[in-house]
Each structure stands twice: as C-alpha cells, then as structure tokens.
Specification:
12 helices; about 35% helix; binds iron/sulfur cluster
C-alpha cells in the first residue's frame, strides 16, 4: 500500500542569482513499512524535497511551483495550514542532522519529548512526563528517570540524537523523515542510531524516508533508493539491484568515491567537476559536464527516467552500457 506519493514536484527559490529550481519534477513513492533513501551530494535537492513534504519551505523566497504530494490519500499541498499542523509531528515526524537546531536549550529534554503528546493527544503534564521517561528508555538512554530533567547541553551528541528520535516517535507517526540523522555523529554511535531506527521502525510499523549523502548508510537500512542529481531523480531501484548493477554514471561515481577496505584516502576517486550552479543548470543531461560516458546527444537532449529492468529506472541515454 502506498503511504506517500509525490508526483512531478517542483520547488523553486527566487534568489539574486536568478530562479533556482531546487527540485525540478521529481516523482517518488513510499509504501507502508518501507524505507526509501534519497541519496545525493549536498545541494541536489534532497533536503528541499523533505521540507516540501512538510510544507516547511519559507515563502518568499521559496515556493512549491507544481506537482502533488499525497499522504494517506490526502493532498498535502492543498490542505489548509491548520490541518497540516495536525499532520506535522503526529502523522509525519522529522529528525534532522543537528539536534542542536531542533532541541530548545531552555527546556528540559523531558518537556520537549512530551510536547508533541501534550499538543496532539492532549494528555496531562504528569502523563506526558511518564511517557517521556518511557520513550527515553525505549531509545536507549540510560537512567531516563533522571535524564528527563536534564537540559540539552547536559547530553552528549549521540544522546541528543536519541532524544530527538524519542520526540519524533512520541505520537507513533506513520512516516518518519530522517534528514542525515547520523552525519554529525562518530561511526560507532552512527551504527547504534541506525540500528535503533530499524528496531523502532519494526515495532511501530512506520515508513521511513531517509535523506543521506552516504551510500554506506543506504546499504544498512534502505529497501529502495532514489538517487538525486541537480534537482532530479536520475536512478531508482531496490537497494540490492542498485548495489549490484547501478545504471547511471552518477551513481557509479558515488560508489567509486566510497572508501573500500584497505584503500588509502588519496586513492579514492572523487566524481570530477563540481555540482552545477542551480541557477544555471547545463542543457540536456545535467550530469554531462562530469560524465565519462557523455556523447553529443547528452548535451542537447534531456534523458527521461525510463525502466531498464522491472523496478529499476535510470535517466541516462546510455544506461544499458553503464558498468561499475
Ligand atoms: Fe552521461 Fe549522457 Fe547518461 Fe547523462 S545521459 S549520464 S551525460 S551518458
């Protein structure tokens, strides 16, 4: 069953440098209980996609210029703001990269974890505190009875991220949007947080839309992957198919820039060139200035996303020739 369905979403920003088409006609769906990862370098439009779903694009300078976003059969883009507030935090929750920006330094962790429950479920403060303790325990915070009264600065980075997850899960959302949830953490804490997310997902039965630049994380948690480049989805497949045989040169570039066991950093192959200026995308295939397989056709004709094998699509004129 499809929980979230995005069709031809276009999100734009008016800047001094011109019109930025940050998200330029993407379509994506997330099924019930599924984890879908959106992968790409910074500036590719993946975080703007997440903010568009929650209608958190600041306007001006931004606006959703076209497309539809359906969640549980409801059209989020035409919904009144009041109804949207009931969806945010209750039905769709979000975890960000930097807990510092989401946890308020002047309130206790317990108060902030309980806040969505006080707001959406109208429970008493006493019951909220009890639920906050329960949630902090569930996300692996030791001694939650005393931690509940701590302020954010008293917690480590990993604990803050756990508290953020507790906040996000308080109302048992159907969809969790996790935007680079572990980027600020060291590798060991990162794996613990990913394992925790997987456990919680199983318990609650929620879906996860994971935004990341890191294919290592994708391999650990995702069922399906959409690779974004310059505001568009360039490849989508289930995680096994994508790792076994990527069908877009950009995805191959992302794989080549992953560190391998025994490989020293200097030998890593970075994708040559720069992410293009979003106010002046190249004509034709937006990846052509960086692509080792580019031909004349790529400089003039936009490659459309097309199915290469069942469930595996690529937006590349030469998808059948791509090898890792
Ligand atoms: Fe490279 Fe051409 Fe494919 Fe674009 S369409 S990724 S430039 S081969």
């Amino acid at each position: 069953m499809t929980l979230l369905s995005i069709r031809d979403l276009r999100t734009q920003f008016m800047t001094e440098g011109g019109l930025v088409r940050a998200v330029d006609g993407i379509s994506l769906s997330v099924g019930a209980g599924e984890t879908v990862a959106v992968v790409g370098e910074s500036g590719c439009g993946k975080s703007v996609t997440a903010l568009s779903i929650l209608r958190l694009i600041a306007s001006p300078p931004g606006r959703i210029a076209g497309g539809t976003i359906e969640f549980e059969g409801l059209d989020l883009l035409s919904m009144p703001e009041k109804a949207m507030r009931r969806i945010r935090g209750k039905k769709i929750a979000m975890v960000f990269q930097e807990p510092q920006t989401s946890l308020n330094p002047v309130f206790t962790v317990g108060f902030q974890v309980a806040e969505p429950l006080l707001l959406h479920e109208k429970i008493s403060r006493r019951a909220g505190r009890a639920r906050a303790i329960e949630l902090l325990r569930r996300v692996g915070i030791a001694d939650p009875e005393s931690r509940v009264d701590d302020y954010p600065h008293q917690l480590s980075g990993g604990m803050k991220q756990r508290a953020m997850i507790a906040m996000a899960l308080a109302c048992k959302p159907s969809l969790l949007i996790a935007d680079e949830p572990t980027t600020a953490l060291d590798v060991t804490v990162q794996s613990q947080i990913l394992a925790l997310l997987k456990d919680l997902q199983r318990d609650i039965g929620m879906s996860v839309l994971l935004i990341t630049h890191d294919l290592g994380i994708v391999a650990e948690v995702a069922d399906r992957v959409a690779v974004m480049y310059a505001g568009r989805i360039v490849e989508t497949a289930d995680v096994r198919a994508l790792f076994a045989s990527p069908r877009h040169p950009y995805t191959v570039g992302l794989f080549d820039s992953l560190p391998r066991v025994g490989e020293i950093r200097a030998r890593l192959r970075a994708i040559p060139g720069q992410v293009p200026d979003p106010a002046a995308f190249p004509e034709g295939c937006r990846f052509h200035p960086r692509c080792p397989l580019a031909i004349d056709r790529c400089r003039s004709e936009v490659p459309l996303l097309r199915e290469i094998s069942p469930g595996h699509a690529s937006a590349c004129h030469r998808a059948e020739e791509v090898k890792r």
